[in-house]
Design goal:
Structural class: mainly beta
Strand content: over 45%
Distance between the termini: 54 Å
Shape: elongated
Helix content: under 10%
Largest sheet: 23 strands, antiparallel
Order of helices and strands: EEEEEEEEEEEEEEEEEEEEEEEH
Number of strands: 23
């Protein structure tokens, strides 16, 4: 219809040879929620039990929900269900994922090695993932090992995987045993994931992690220089219940923040803490910050009954307080702009 064309052809049986072609200048003619241009070809061949799927695609100015891609091109092939022979070549430019901008994304495979290159306005990262897949006899899932997953970045430092990590997906369950990275600056980050049929459990532990990793989530023009230790445990009970515990300890560092005058100020702190608890009763959070000059700030937030996946702003009660013991009142502008 309009400027869009879809063509299907081929044979289907014990062995199959199915072809599909799509050409569209206005994708919303075919899929109302999708925008952009796309040229794509796909093919499914081989035995029904072990089909091989292959495709090529080129797209421009694509968007769907909170994802936008200015330009993308690629080709891939894989033996579906087993994923023993995976070949991917993908290049994308100017991505926006939930308001996170990526200048370019490139993914390619070399045998068992998957290379990913990401470029943003602040950093370049390279991830090399190598896995060996072992198919169980009953073919109800797969298990493998992450052999390499290294990140190289001028901004976020270089991170290397400590040791190979087993990964298993079976019967709609996912198990990732503890995976750890260490950086050139002696920082470490460890995580584990265990998904069951009704819930997902995740834990994270960080030591001496640079605060540049969290700058994206800070208010505009507010920056932190230093490092922190942190632990987090999250349980997601399907479909809409979250239980979480977060503890953060700041090491000595500095804070750069905007002032009402339009200028910025730079202050040093000696320690800080953040504790957050989310459960069936709601959200509770406390924070402390001790400055080098002796100033001390304590803040608390309580949101009874709060659940981020179900609550609406109109019905959510909130109680908050800030306690200040300060000789210099300049930093209060950070809390009360």
């Amino acid at each position: 219809s309009g400027q869009s064309r879809v063509k299907n052809s081929g044979l289907y049986g014990e062995t199959q040879d199915l072809n599909r072609e799509l050409s569209s200048k206005e994708l919303d003619e075919l899929y109302p929620q999708v925008r952009g241009e796309l040229e794509a070809k796909g093919q499914i061949t081989g035995d029904q039990e072990i089909p091989v799927i292959s495709s090529t695609f080129n797209g421009r100015e694509l968007s769907y929900n909170k994802l936008a891609i200015f330009e993308i091109a690629g080709e891939m092939s894989a033996d579906l269900f087993r994923w023993q022979a995976l070949d991917v070549q993908l290049a994308a430019k100017e991505l926006n994922i939930n308001n996170n901008e990526i200048l370019s994304l490139d993914i390619n495979t070399e045998g068992e090695l998957v290379n990913t290159y990401v470029v943003t306005d602040k950093a370049k990262a390279e991830i090399a993932l190598k896995g060996q897949v072992d198919i169980p006899k009953n073919n109800s899932g797969w298990q493998g090992t992450i052999l390499k997953a290294d990140i190289n970045s001028d901004y976020y430092d270089n991170w290397k995987l400590d040791k190979p990590v087993p990964l298993q997906i079976k019967d709609r369950k996912l198990l990732l045993e503890t995976i750890c990275w260490h950086s050139n600056r002696q920082a470490s980050l460890c995580a584990s994931v265990n998904q069951q049929q009704t819930s997902l459990l995740a834990s994270i532990q960080m030591n001496e992690v640079p605060l540049t990793l969290v700058e994206h989530w800070l208010p505009e023009d507010l920056t932190l220089d230093g490092s922190a230790d942190a632990t987090a445990k999250v349980e997601y009970q399907f479909p809409d219940q979250l239980i979480a515990e977060l503890n953060v300890s700041l090491h000595e560092g500095s804070i750069n923040y905007p002032m009402l005058s339009g200028e910025s100020d730079h202050r040093f702190y000696t320690a800080g803490k953040l504790q957050l608890d989310l459960d069936n009763d709601g959200l509770k959070a406390t924070s402390e910050l001790t400055m080098r000059n002796g100033d001390h700030f304590t803040g608390t937030i309580s949101m009874p009954g709060y659940q981020p996946l179900t609550v609406t702003e109109q019905e959510q009660p909130l109680t908050a307080s800030v306690r200040v013991n300060a000789k210099d009142l300049g930093l209060i502008e950070v809390f009360f702009p």
